[in-house]
Structures are given as C-alpha cells and as structure tokens.
UniProtKB/TrEMBL annotation:
InterPro entries: AAA+_ATPase (IPR003593), ABC_transporter-like_ATP-bd (IPR003439), ABC_transporter-like_CS (IPR017871), ABC_transpr_LolD-like (IPR015854), P-loop_NTPase (IPR027417). This is Cell division ATP-binding protein FtsE. Residues 7-233 form the ABC transporter domain. The keyword Nucleotide-binding applies. GO terms for cellular component: plasma membrane. The keyword Nucleotide-binding applies. It comes from Lentimicrobium saccharophilum. Keywords: ATP-binding, Nucleotide-binding. SMART domains: AAA. It comes from the Bacteria. PANTHER family: CELL DIVISION ATP-BINDING PROTEIN FTSE, IMPORT ATP-BINDING PROTEIN.
Amino acid sequence: MALDTIIELNNLSVYQRNILVLSEVTLSIGKGEFVYLIGKTGTGKSSLLKTLYADLPVNEGEAEVVGYNLRNIKQKEVPYLRRKIGIVFQDFQLLSDRSVNDNLVFVLKATGWKDKEAADERIKDVLEKVGLKTKGFKMPHQLSGGEQQRVAIARALLNDPELILADEPTGNLDPETSEGIMTLLFEISHSGRAVLMATHNYALMEKFPTRTLKCEAGKVLTSENGFGQPGSIA
Ligand SMILES: Nc1ncnc2c1ncn2[C@@H]1O[C@H](COP(=O)(O)OP(=O)(O)OP(=O)(O)O)[C@@H](O)[C@H]1O
C-alpha cells in the first residue's frame, strides 16, 4: 500500500449475514481525498462503510484501511482501528443527558485519555475547528440540527483520525445548513485526511463536485466527476 493510501480494497466482497451485497470491489482512496458514495436504497452503501470500520467481516478479497489488514484483524485490534477512523451518522447520536463538553469527555475517557488538561485542550481545539467554540456548555437539545452535526463531527475528530466515514451526514439538515457541513468536511479532507461520504443529496453533489463511487447491481462503479443525473453514468 502506498504511503498516502488510506483505503485500499482489492476484489472485496461485502456480505450481510450470508447474503452477498457487493462483490469485486476494487478501489483506493488517498490522503486529502473527498469521495462520495451513492446508490439507491439497499444497494450497499452502509454495508460498505460498516466493512471499512470492521463492523462487518472481510472473508473474501482484501481490505486495508488506515494501515490495518481487515482480512486478518484481531478483535482486540478493532478499537485501535476505530480510533483512526471518525464516524459521522445522519442522526448525530449525541448523548442527550449531558453537555457538548461532556459528550466529548466521554469519548476521550473511553479511548484512554487520562490527562485532564490535555483532554480539555483537545476538546477546545475540535470545537473551534467546527465553529462551536462557545457552545461547549450547552445540552444537545439546546442546539440546532446543524450545530448538533458539528458536535458529532468534532467528536469524530477527537482522536485525529486519518479517515472520516460519513453516512448521510446531511440527511436531517436543510440545504443551507448542509452546505456548511459540506464545507467543513471538505476542509477536513484538505487537512490531510480522507473523507468518504454516503449521500442521496444530488443537489449538494452538484454544488461540491468530486470523485464519486456508485453502488449498483452488486458492484461499485467509479466516476472522477460524479455521475451526472441520478441513474446515468457520466
Ligand atoms: N443487519 C442486516 N442484516 C441482514 N441484511 C441487512 C442488514 N442490514 C442491511 N441488510 C441488507 O443489505 C443490503 C444493503 O443494505 P445497506 O443498508 O448497506 O444499503 P444502503 O445502500 O446503505 O441503503 P440506504 O440508502 O437505504 O441507507 C440490503 O439488501 C439490506 O436489506
């Protein structure tokens, strides 16, 4: 795997239980790249993302992600793999019973940060990166949807991941707020990480065109500049 390669898949098959969802998946994604993952409902976008963070096993083909070979990764190595991957979902998944700061503290504690000063500093840094420097004391329900998604992105950045996997991160947001989130995710990719984002939002893709992968008929197709209108191959 080249030094700057973050994801390298070679002839990978993706299964849900014993059902083959995707096969012959061969692609690579490098440092600094932003890539969309599109395809109709049920075509395997989430399954592919789950495979990349070792929530689904690799039994056929090869998958190397942030330096881990997923074909022979050991269960005890999975938390270390996930520390190098930031994951962002459509529904934010913040803990509703605690403040923004405490949501972030929770993750740092769970991932072994013991030095409180360093942890506080890190939290300040990531909140600043997502434009929420002054909102750490707020409870999630006191924030707008876009702000909650920014907190989720801040949380994903805590351990300085090499890769961000985002599963429809703008799915619950209005168009203007979605653009803000996209700008943020692009900035994150430009800072030397890779971002892979599953989406159904073609309007956003037109506004922020970049390399696009498409799940279709059990395969993953690639286009360097999107696929034009939904359903057609540019
Ligand atoms: N936990 C599961 N157990 C069994 N089959 C599943 C499971 N999750 C998904 N599947 C099946 O795997 C296939 C791919 O689903 P997946 O969720 O990856 O699609 P998707 O492209 O992400 O869809 P969407 O756009 O609706 O999120 C579907 O046929 C789905 O029914």
